[in-house]
Amino acid sequence: MVRLPLTPAEVARGQRLGALLRRARGERSMLEIALDARVSPETLRKIESGRVATPAFPTIAAIADVLGLSLDAVWAEISQSDSGVRPANADHCAREQLTA
Known about the structure:
Layout: H1 8-25, H2 30-37, H3 41-49, H4 57-67, H5 71-78, H6 90-99
Helix pairs in contact: 1-3, 2-3, 2-4
C-alpha cells in the first residue's frame, strides 16, 4: 500500500496535536502516560514531536483519556487553524443547498 504524502494542513494539525499533548502531560513522564494509555513510549514521542502527524484514532483516544482530555477538546484545539480549509465535498453540499 502506497501512502500519499501529507498535506501542509495535515502536518500543521499533527504539530498542534503534539503540542497539545505535551502541554496536557505537563510534568508527568512520557513513559508513565504511554504505559497507562497502552501505547509504546516511542509512539507517544513521535506523536508529541509531530513525526506522526496522523496517528490512529484509538491511539489518540487512549492518550486523551489518560490525560483527561475530551476528544471534542482535542479536535477543537488541533483544527482551529483549519477554518480556511474546505472539505472535499463542500462545493457539492453548497450546490445541494442552492437547489433545495
